Amino acid sequence: WSISCISHLVLQLYYTSSVLMIAREWVRCPICSNKTRDRIREDTILINYPLYCPKCKQETLIEAKNLKITVIKEPDAQTQSR
After folding, report:
1. Residues in contact with 50: Cβ distance below 8 Å, sequence separation at least 6, in sequence order
2. Which residue from 14, 41, 54, 56 could staple onto 32, CB 3.0 to 4.6 Å apart?
């Protein structure tokens, strides 16, 4: 084995192990708490993401950062006065 080949393998191993260390979680429905079809990583940032739950068939707006999910409350529609 040459030194350049060994250093390349070490760098490749380091890169692979660092990628595998990133935590991932299933996004759970805030209404029924079941898993959705979406997964997020700890470096994922979502803003105004429409999360759909295939079980309860509801759609909820969420935000995500550092594996923490926050539900966004939409304001109720108001009638316009003339």
Report:
1. 59, 60, 61
2. 56
Is the C-alpha dihedral spanning 25, 27, 29, 34 positive or negative? negative
How many whole angstroms separate alpha carbon 13 and alpha carbon 20? Answer: 11
Contacts of 22 (CB under 8 A, 6+ apart): 41, 42, 43
Bin 44: left if φ > 0, else alpha if -120 < ψ < 50, else beta.
Answer: beta
Measured CA to CA in angstroms, residue 58 lies from 47, 50, 51, 67, 76 at distances of 18, 10, 8, 21, 17
Strand ranges (E), 1-82 = 24-28, 35-41, 45-52, 59-65, 68-71
pLDDT at 69 (0 to 100): 93
Region at 30 (left for phi over 0; alpha for psi -120 to 50; beta for the rest): alpha
